């Protein structure tokens, strides 16, 4: 099955600027796709090409710095997702309970830009989810580009959550109060060239699901890319389509919808061994609702015949559990499956 057959491209500008019938068509298409595979591409998102290009350029310049300089802004604590993460310092498959070698990637993370001063942001779990961002000294435009890109992703994700609400038979503003103090992360991921074969079972990113409500991904046209698994167990390549973002739903939407929508297992594969160059950089926005937002079965997704399958949790509790598992990378000598 090809990507175009199973992963549609949806023009979200029709929801913002279209007629009522065009808006309804977008809502129906999103609902059908989230039930079937949980992945789709969007165009008409309004994010300027120039901003994407500038963000890519500054990310590439940062990863090209000497390792010692990158480590000046290293992630300080495993539970705080800010700063630089060294190559092969996590295994995403472990968040699924699957023992696997560390992933062949390095990354840099930022979080919310405008934390307040009241206890919600500065005490308890606010210390974790609203930890200060770290910023590299070089390149000089890194902070400005990352900040602008993060703000653009906030706008896109807000609109997508409104489409999601309507797709689930809810008021358009249903999720607004659950994401107005969101704790989303923007991650720049560098998948370097692989001059040597990886270890057995080692990938650029092991199979996993995303932890939050939705993810917005920008990819490059380079060897070794994203694959998603459909409900029948088939792995489908997600190729590069200019002008689009890849969107997938995360664990929280799957739990909110009582498994009506699927948080799809996905992975990033290694490039072919004969690829002359295979470096790949991805820009990933993980949209995570307010850390205290309750995630319980939505009223439109349960019935006497289909009761709630998951106990209620919070956005933050789910993220913290998954993050801890992924960061608990075992010694190299441990036997892996």
Automatic annotation (TrEMBL):
GO terms for biological process: ethylene biosynthetic process. It catalyses: L-arginine + 2-oxoglutarate + O2 = guanidine + L-glutamate 5-semialdehyde + succinate + CO2; 2-oxoglutarate + O2 + 2 H(+) = ethene + 3 CO2 + H2O. Keywords: Ethylene biosynthesis, Iron, Metal-binding, Oxidoreductase. It is an enzyme of class 1 (oxidoreductase). GO terms for molecular function: 2-oxoglutarate oxygenase/decarboxylase (ethylene-forming) activity; metal ion binding. PROSITE patterns: FE2OG_OXY. Pfam families: 2OG-FeII_Oxy, DIOX_N. Residues 182-289 form the Fe2OG dioxygenase domain. PANTHER family: 2-OXOGLUTARATE (2OG) AND FE(II)-DEPENDENT OXYGENASE SUPERFAMILY PROTEIN-RELATED. Belongs to the iron/ascorbate-dependent oxidoreductase family. This is 2-oxoglutarate-dependent ethylene/succinate-forming enzyme. It comes from Bradyrhizobium manausense.
